[in-house]
Design goal:
4 copies of one chain form a homotetramer. By secondary structure, the first copy, chain A, is α+β, with helices and mostly antiparallel strands. The first copy, chain A, has helices spanning 4-7, 21-31, 77-90, 163-174, 226-238, 293-297, 307-310; strands at 8-18, 35-40, 43-47, 57-61, 66-74, 93-97, 106-110, 116-120, 152-160, 177-184, 188-195, 203-207, 216-222, 243-249, 256-261, 267-271, 286-288, 300-301. In chain A, the strands form 2 sheets. The first copy, chain A, has a 10-stranded mixed beta sheet with strand order 17-10-11-12-9-13-16-15-14-18. An 8-stranded mixed beta sheet of chain A has the order 2-3-4-1-5-8-7-6. In chain A, a hairpin with a 6-residue loop joins strand 14 and strand 15. Chains in contact: A-B, A-C, A-D, B-C, B-D, C-D. Chains A, B, C, D: It is an enzyme of class 1 (oxidoreductase).
Chain lengths: 323, 323, 323, 323
């Protein structure tokens, strides 16, 4: 039995940089109905109303948009130790930090492409104020009355100068299972969708067609109902927030998607579907090839513009290094 | 690390007896859009269009409705061996069978209440005929054009003379995690919802208020969209199929539910929601008590009639033994 | 050609009394997303975001909940004159008023049961502030970000000591067409649904089973999407607003309904469906009889409690006069 | 009072030519769930399950796809006579025909652009076979179990060499009200949406950018639920039926649309929304200009390809005459 398959339990939170902190917070709270847990210094900690922990999104002021870090929760204290040992051996480890608001000590590392990540065990649960307590015991607070409220953090998509080594790193060192991938030519991977749970992905790795390293493609929040993406689209159009693509259905992951840009410039995906879940313990990864690409990318609905494959944060041109 | 937590991967299939085999098959195929894989002797093997295996529902002719057996798939061949050893030690083991259409050898056992179950590793995947092949690679066949097609098997609900010992058996011998429960008085459990995945339950155990042992409450198929339950309700009412309750939303499991009786007399739940998923590896089971029961059972929508708590299959009165 | 068939164009607005003006306004604005146009003295004027006129709901402080008045817009100034002449002849006319905020002079009258109504031509259109202007030209303002916003006023339901004379009055004097009705015994009408447009009803008349005269049953706002009633139900349950029944589908009018009580005590229906529309100029009214009543009242979903047939505003017991 | 405003009641049926009669019938019945009332000679008569009359779509074998005729039902026998007199005076009248299966005598005429139309009073109602009778009295038959069944005929869109004279003809001779329009430059109309009911349009007139006369753009069937367009899109993609655009939301008419080509080559729109309804008797037509065109055409979702503005049936190139 490969322990690694069960040592990472879930995506815990994501930190994003934004050059327009105030406007970004307004977008996430007023339109997407996220909740601010706390503001501290240059950061604002937020969560969706069905997220159980202290925060799932940390917005930090910065000169450019982009990824701060991605945090994974281990399955147990022992699982955390096992993974840290493995990460240290990988040469990608950076060391322990004391923690942050909402969680205890965490071990930091980077993907081969340079995306900062961390793994942790101790988390603080969200504790609602009295007037936000709900009788629905599986919901950590009342459903918000503001905007079209997202329900929970779903996944991140990271752009990579090369998909394969990053995929192998996530699989071998952290136990992510490959669920779907796009391959062109002689086994060149353009995309990989990986998960530690029945979700098709908690992380997607996507070829950065500018050739840059370590950029961020999108963070996804989950709604679960296609109608809510239409409601949100209506609000976005009326309020001048740019929809890049969608609503529409991807072949890959069967997601009913919509992509928008938050005011800081980061791409945000809204997931309006229940998609499909993978319970088969012997799942054979799905491979989409050139001849399937059209259906892979758009099963039906709004096409993706070219910028979808080129724009990430921070914004860089072809060949222009991120750092 | 407790191995048991990861040794059972998923609900593989359910066998139900029906005194009206032909009518039951018609209900599941014409109205719910299930697909017949094969008919063999007194049994018909079916699956929903997003079920990957040979079958997820086996309907077998019998004098009375009720449960044939519940089958679980192990996470690996080794996990299967570990569970069989544990089941043998439990005293609930019955021994190996050679298998059935669609799967290899399986180890049979019963719950303390007497529900026949089995655990297996080798499965046969569904192989669609040429005209049912789809370009959507995560879908094992085309979406049916018949009825309002269910997408996949979701869970089973078993009535128990006592919930607690059956819950403990599923937890200790098979690694099911307790997700939610209903408790009255001094810790008397009336219901337990358990899973091996982020689903809130693959199995629910419910107090049989007639005092009988080993009866079957319902099998649930998953739609994922509330609209589809409304579409189905429309068809059911027009075609004389009895809706027992719903559509409506449970507090427990947050399911958008509907309960109907298939012509053989077994209760079938249709799941029209994406519900919520549990990714927290340290989940504290939710306990609903007397004072919460109203919201636990019906968060909003159609109430449950008294028969919901009394009727199971086979149909028995208070104190009347099943066998 | 009967002129009367086209002289009344639409339901223009409804005035309700409430003993809890502040709480009623909060319910309609915070949860149902209605917009306050103006507050004046003891009244607050509101509209839904796709209502085109100055207001469609006027809430007025009063000692008891109940109907203030129902206002109809005529099809033209000439149509107004024709209807006033007819109303004067009917003996139900009360005379002209100068108008109110949002509309010009109006002719007042009562139904035989005593419900105060008026008919008018001149209306003031809603003029949004700059930040509420939308690019969607058929929408008078931006879609609100508050609560689950209703789209427009739909209909009123009036309780009558006897349905038939009130139905005849609405048909003969105002040109309402009978669309559906419930009849028991020897042609005793328990309910009549009438309209001047393809909607099944702008007004329903319902037997007051307490025997009282002139009471109010409900006002209905339209959402158009079943999902929104579920979203709203969620908010209502969490915030202690009582849902009387629903969501569910009526046979009569094919409406996907939900009934709630606003804090002042008046019943409000939310319409979550597109229902069906009647374009046939030679429509034969549908008659539901004893044997059809179950399907007429609930096609599927949540049943109606007994109080639905007894409770109206102001709240009165059997035989207790309204005034 | 202008009589003409109320003399036409509704769109009664549409005849389309198809070079692939069998395949067209299969598309409309198997995938869209339409019902065949009768086959007669080279024609097949169909209706959606909530259409009340004998048929709403007549498919006739022909060498090329395109419009056979559009039929309107008058509001009364007298209204029919008034309109015929008007049409005769217009010089566009062609004379009476004896009728067809499903309706009595009809007066034929053409638009200035040459689209064949007719107006009639006597219609035959659909009479379901015993096993198709439903308890839902406002539904002329049971909801079908085949495909994703459309509910009713909604509107037609006619391409015109010049919009304005055709718009004026429909307004002046038949009483259609202009609801929305697109205008470019110095009052050149590119599109006009007109209705005789609160629907935004039963007929749309659209500039034929090839300069041809009398071509057909699309027929629209109504679903009423956005989810059903997604369900249908899924079936279409899997079964090789081309989706031209959608699902998405138009600014004009607020329709949640999807455009597909039936196998004969005619464009079919599926309407998945309840849109908005116009009850204001004094409605000021909405004008969309160059600067609003983007939102007018696509409020959100899938864009329209260029062919949308060029392709009609029969298929013609720029400057190539239809006949």
């Amino acid at each position: 039995m490969k322990m690694s398959l069960y040592d990472v339990a879930q995506l815990a939170h994501v930190e994003l940089y934004t050059p327009k902190l105030k406007e970004s917070v307004e977008f996430f709270t007023k339109i997407m109905g996220l909740q601010v847990t706390v503001e501290a210094g240059e950061s604002v900690y937020l969560r969706a109303y069905e997220d159980f922990y202290h925060h799932t999104l940390k917005l930090t002021a910065g000169p450019e948009p982009g990824l701060g870090h991605v945090a994974w929760r281990a399955s147990s204290p022992e699982a955390l130790e096992r993974r840290v040992k493995e990460l240290e051996e990988s040469g990608q480890g950076k060391g322990w930090i004391d923690g942050d608001l909402g969680h205890g000590r965490a071990y930091q590392f980077t993907t081969p492409d340079g995306h900062l990540q961390e793994i942790l065990w101790e988390v603080e649960y969200y504790n609602p104020p009295e007037d936000q307590k709900t009788l629905l015991k599986s919901r950590p607070q009342k459903r918000p009355m503001q905007g079209v409220p997202a329900r929970r953090l779903d996944h991140v998509n990271l752009m990579c100068s090369e998909v394969t080594p990053n995929k192998e790193f996530m699989a071998e060192r952290l136990g992510f299972k490959l669920r779907e991938r796009i391959v062109v030519g002689e086994e060149r991977e353009l995309g990989a969708w990986m998960s530690v749970s029945p979700l098709v992905h908690e992380v997607a790795l996507m070829q950065d067609q500018t050739g840059n390293k370590g950029r961020f493609h999108h963070i996804a929040f989950w709604y679960g109902y296609p109608q809510h993406l239409m409601d949100l689209a209506d609000l976005l159009v009326e309020n001048g927030i740019k929809i890049e693509a969608g609503p529409g259905k991807h072949g890959v992951s069967q997601a009913y998607f919509m992509y928008v840009f938050e005011p800081g410039g980061n791409r945000v995906e809204l997931f309006g579907d229940s998609g499909y879940l993978i319970f088969d313990p012997d799942w054979k990864p799905i491979t989409w090839r050139e001849e399937d690409l059209q259906e892979a990318i758009i099963w039906y609905g709004s096409p993706l513009p070219e910028e979808y494959f080129l724009y990430g944060t921070p914004d860089r041109k072809v060949g222009e290094p991120v750092v």
